[in-house]
């Protein structure tokens, strides 16, 4: 199949349209961060930097850390941005951009999201490392793709939907992360469990300001949910699209977050610059 210009959109230099990069600009292991400034923070640990670019909110630095090639790439906030990032990263390694055709062999990337999140369990302290075994999507990105979820994923999504009682317009989906990357990142200081990915920061996460929310008690219900010894540990805004789209395309995906707010205890970090530095070093030393 040859992809037309309107579907596989490239810029005047032949780079993927939104990220503004070409295949030689990325490494097989990519650390994804929401914050543009966090890219330079990651690359400050590199032995050397071989590529730097910025296009829109997408900042990309590639280099080596202890001899291994690593890319740090900012995504911006939300699953809509993850949709762009995953599709364009996949195109970089699995589509011949000159001929606009699929390559004969496929490449699997290691995609590791380093983010921040709200903690949903009172026993998990602020500044803990939260490692996502699964992501529940209460966004709609994966519903646009012909993705085959496995039996466990379908079961978890259905059980959670029934337990929480989401508005009828919301259909949760569930996607698991990469077992191999989970094993690499697990440690004594990590808390593993289910992440809930919302389509927004305020009402979709149960916050009520002037407009109110239809999910008033969502946090309390999520705190109580448990299935197959998995409990819901945090709220964030990217992992459901990362896991579902990435896995469907054959990539290895995982998320590790620094918990900066404990929602049950109504606590928020007073500053987490050093803690984020420590988390980045933790990930780099393991990948």
From TrEMBL:
One of its GO terms (molecular function) is uridine phosphorylase activity. It is an enzyme of class 2 (transferase). It comes from the Bacteria. This is Uridine phosphorylase. Residues 30-259 form the Nucleoside phosphorylase domain. Pfam families: PNP_UDP_1. It catalyses: uridine + phosphate = alpha-D-ribose 1-phosphate + uracil. InterPro entries: Nucleoside_phosphorylase_d, Nucleoside_phosphorylase_sf. Its EC number is 2.4.2.3. One of its GO terms (biological process) is purine nucleoside catabolic process. One of its GO terms (cellular component) is cytosol. It comes from Fluviicola taffensis (strain DSM 16823 / NCIMB 13979 / RW262). SUPFAM superfamilies: Purine and uridine phosphorylases.
């Amino acid at each position: 199949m040859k992809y037309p210009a309107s579907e596989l959109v490239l810029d005047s230099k032949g780079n993927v349209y939104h990220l503004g990069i070409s295949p030689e600009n990325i490494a097989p292991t990519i650390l994804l961060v929401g914050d543009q400034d966090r890219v330079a923070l990651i690359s400050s640990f590199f032995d050397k930097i071989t590529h730097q670019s910025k296009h829109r909110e997408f900042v990309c630095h590639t280099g080596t850390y202890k001899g291994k090639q690593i890319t740090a790439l900012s995504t911006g906030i939300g699953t809509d941005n993850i949709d762009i990032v995953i599709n364009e990263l996949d195109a970089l390694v699995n589509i011949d951009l000159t001929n606009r055709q699929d390559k004969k062999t496929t490449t699997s990337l290691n995609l590791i999201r380093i983010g921040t999140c709200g903690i949903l369990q009172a026993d998990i302290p602020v500044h803990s490392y939260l490692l996502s075994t699964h992501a529940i999507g209460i966004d709609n990105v994966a519903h646009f793709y012909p993705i085959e979820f496995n039996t466990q994923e379908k079961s978890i999504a259905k059980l959670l939907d029934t337990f929480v009682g989401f508005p009828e317009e919301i259909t949760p989906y569930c996607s698991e992360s990469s077992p191999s990357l989970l094993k690499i990142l697990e440690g004594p200081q990590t808390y593993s469990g289910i992440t809930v990915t919302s389509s927004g920061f305020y009402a979709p996460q149960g916050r009520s300001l002037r407009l109110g929310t239809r999910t008033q008690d969502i946090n309390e219900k999520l705190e109580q949910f448990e299935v197959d010894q998995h409990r819901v540990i945090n709220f964030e805004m990217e992992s459901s699209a990362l896991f579902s789209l990435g896995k469907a395309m054959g990539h290895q995906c995982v998320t590790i977050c620094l918990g900066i707010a404990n929602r049950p205890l109504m606590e928020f970090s007073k500053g987490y610059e050093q803690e984020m530095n420590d988390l980045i070093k933790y990930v780099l030393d393991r990948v």
